[in-house]
Amino acid sequence: MKKIILTLVFASAFATLSAQTEPVKKINPEFNQWSVELAGGFNKPQRPMSAGTRTAVVSPYVADLGVRYMFNNKFGIKADFGYNSFTNGDDSKSFDTKYYRADLQAVANLGRIMNFETWTNTLGLLGHAGFGLGFLEKTDGAYAKDRVGNFMAGVTGQIKLSDRVALTGDFTTILNAKQSLTFDGANGANTRGFGGILFNGTVGVTVYLGKNEKHADWVTLIDKDVLALTDRVDSLETMLIDTDQDGVADYLDLEKNTVSGVMVDSKGRAIDLNNNNVPDELENYLTANYVNKKDQSTATDNELIRNLVNGGYIATYFDFDKANPTTVSTTGIDFILTYLRNNPSASVDIIGHADELGRSAYNDKLSNERAANVKKILMKANIDASRLNVLAAGEDNSVEKDSEGARKLVRKVTFRIK
Q1: In CATH, which superfamily holds the domain spanning 272-417?
Q2: Is the peptide bond before 285 cis (omega within 30 degrees of 0)?
Q3: Residue 282 carries which DSSP code?
């Protein structure tokens, strides 16, 4: 039965969820998309270089200025301008050349792509690559110039100092195409394809522009389709919660606090063939092991009965606007009577309840009369009145007021053993 019920639950849930057409609400924050980047550092031209020339191992100078626009928090584009100065190092022929370039590059926010936010909110990583034009110029001795195409690619580490400023460190490789001058300014390089190689290392700052609090570099956007699917799975899991562990999910369960272990129907209601509002399995157990037990009950028995009674599982029920118990529901009184006889020092609160129909003052009076009548029945069975305390709980509004079946369950007297 449980497998059948769970199968129906899954089928119904997925049918309902797949039919959902309501658009997902906007949940992602607004973010800034523009930034300005300024950096400076060192370079190392690799080739072409004339025989007997070289730069210092760490060769100044490099300056970069860029303007970047992010389409979203992962991808963007930037235009940047660069300046390199090449001068001779120790044991090298003297030279002084300049290199200017302009490039358009695609940018990938590797920090967001690799989910850096799962372990840091201050470190980031960008990747960039693109094409542009360069101009190599010899300024010492005989003037010479060379126009080249270039391809460049690099990575930029980020440390967020604030929502407006980030410290950056970049390493970039530049490849020049059809370079006629060497980096030291000599003629005759004539490299075909991307033969010129230059390495740049810089440190700089990024300034974020815009009216929003954060820039795209640092926001985590939620995939709305994934969020919708997650919400659906969460809803399904919530629907399958079975609070009373009776094998029927709460959203189908009409009786969410069924006594553990008793047999239930497809709606989660305890089987009660004699309609006395006590589950048949529980009633049979108590009758066999308590009411009809000839010897004195053990401490374990008493504790079990006490927990069941104080938990509200033993009750006496009433018809609408009646103060005398229904004929079929007196079993609850029999249980209490047996307990009080077997435990002479015990006393009990007799608590009357009423449904919500009618005036509150009238229902208070009716609930008191119901409890008082149960007390009279116990007194006629020779239980001393000092052991019986009448309480009026008045209206019980824990069930649907418009449901006759639900109201029937709250027209009752419960007990609390002390």
Answers
A1: OmpA-like domain (3.30.1330.60)
A2: no
A3: H
